[in-house]
Amino acid sequence: MMLVLVCLRRTHASFPFDAYLTVRRINVILMTIIYIILRACFPKGKTIRRATSNSWFLPPQSQMEASMSAPLKQFVITENSKAYWRITFGNPPLNLINPETVRELKQLMELIEAQKDLRVVVFDSANPEFYFARYDLSRAAETPTEPGPTGFPAWIDFILRIAQSPVISIASIRGRTRGGGSELALSFDMRFASKERAIFGQPEVAGGVLPGGGANERLPQLMGRARALEVIVGSDDFDAETAERYGWINRCLPDRELDGFVDNLAKRIASFDSQAVAEAKRLVNRTTLPRPEDFLESQTAFLAAARWPQVLPRVLKARERATAVGLDFELRLGHHLGNL
């Protein structure tokens, strides 16, 4: 339905004043109707901001900044309230992380930091088979290395800022998350996963390279040296129950309960005093965050390993296997990389 408003003004001295008042009353009635329709279409308490097809902009208070940056294409932001956002990743068909993802994470971080009332952000996936699946190694050479506000390259800049932000970040994991995807989840404050559908792995060594986004630093802290080496050097897939037992995630829940549990936890945190939440996180951070220089060393090693001459033959074998088995290659990546 389209409403067309025609506003009349007294542009001539002979225009009847009673007619002018009548027009004003009609305008008021029409504007009231529009308000009722908009309230019905967009109920209070939840806002989804969309700029263009699959493009997402900053909130109203940041619209000036938004005009200066490109729209987000891989992330959807759902505002459950001013204090609680849900950010959904979607990069079909496999939800691979690529250089564009890294740049959009930078934009997301700027958006998060601009919200004074925000207390908690949940990161989930639009694809039930893949969370943040893995980094697209075919584009490793394009990985953004320009420094962010921390002075470190883009990926490290994001994982440092999200960890040091007063906002609590929660990973709601349904589907497979390996390599850079697992490392991104490790950068969030909490991780909850579907018992039936979540799969974890660090397959880089099986692919001939090295983890470079935080696994080398965070996994030993979470699960100990021996289990971290099992995960990284063994390069196999791990189910959610094992990931929980190892300390990789906070806990796994039945798939039907995951969304409700995470939503209730996020709403609970969002209801608390922002200063108390932020200060509690800061104090925990004092003894739990790896050194930024260690992240940089791992990323440098990863980028160097991607250029090792012995990597190419293994990559070609992996592509042959992927062509032969199709989607099963990604679904059972640990199995296939261990049998090249």
Give a description of the structure.
The protein is of the alpha/beta class and 340 residues long. It has 2 domains: 1-41, no CATH class; 47-305, 2-enoyl-CoA Hydratase, Chain A, domain 1, CATH 3.90.226. The protein has helices at 17-41, 63-66, 99-113, 154-164, 180-187, 215-223, 225-234, 240-246, 255-270, 274-285, 292-305, 311-325, 328-331, 333-337, and strands spanning 47-48, 75-81, 84-89, 120-125, 168-173, 176-178, 190-194, 199-201, 237-239, 251-253. The strands form 2 sheets. A 7-stranded mixed sheet has the order 1-2-3-4-5-7-10. A 3-stranded mixed sheet has the order 6-8-9. The longest helix is centred in the first third of the chain and has 25 residues, at 17-41. The radius of gyration is 24 Å and the shape is globular. The model is unreliable at 1-45 and 49-68 (pLDDT under 50).
Q: Level of helix content? A: 40-55%
Radius of gyration: 24 Å
Find the CATH topology of the largest domain.
Answer: 2-enoyl-CoA Hydratase, Chain A, domain 1
Number of E-state strands = 10
Strand content: 5-15%
Number of helices: 14
CATH C-level class of the largest domain is: Alpha Beta
Low-confidence stretches: 1-45, 49-68
Strand order of the largest sheet: 1-2-3-4-5-7-10
**In CATH, what is the homologous superfamily of the largest domain?**
2-enoyl-CoA Hydratase, Chain A, domain 1
Task: Sketch the major β-sheet.
Answer: 7 strands, mixed
- Helices and strands, in order, run as HEHEEHEHEEHEEHHEHEHHHHHH
- What general form does the structure show? globular
CATH architecture of the largest domain: Alpha-Beta Complex
Distance between the termini: 60 Å
The domain count comes to 2
Structural class: alpha/beta
* Average predicted local confidence, pLDDT: 85
